[in-house]
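Recap from last week: sequence in, structure out.
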Amino acid sequence: MTLFNVSPDAVTIFVAFIAVTSDRNTSTSFGFAAGILTGLLSGNMGLNMLARTVGSFAASYFQTPKESHATVTQKSKRFYSAVVVAGLCTNAILAIGENPLGVSPLYRIIVFGILECLFNLILAIILNRLFLRQSLAYE
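Predicted structure tokens:
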């Protein structure tokens, strides 16, 4: 699914889910590993490692502690917030570091970053309703 040359990023959603359900060190490690994998596939490993690591670290601020008495709705809201924050951080770093379309980084951050975050949020809502809600309930 692509609209205006922007598509949702499933890796960001996965990293945000890990960030919400585990501690900061684990989520940052998963972000680093996701950066290695996406970097190997895209050919720009260093920039992807940095972007995914920073995105997962930022998303880990929405972590729900295991001993909290948060409801599933509160945990879902934290997950959605983590998806948006991780997407914005990742897109900002990638927009500054690479520019295949020849447009300004500010334009890429604002237009493409916000569009991708909206797509990620829609995909996260669908995945949460279909699959992840039970996982968040048991955390």
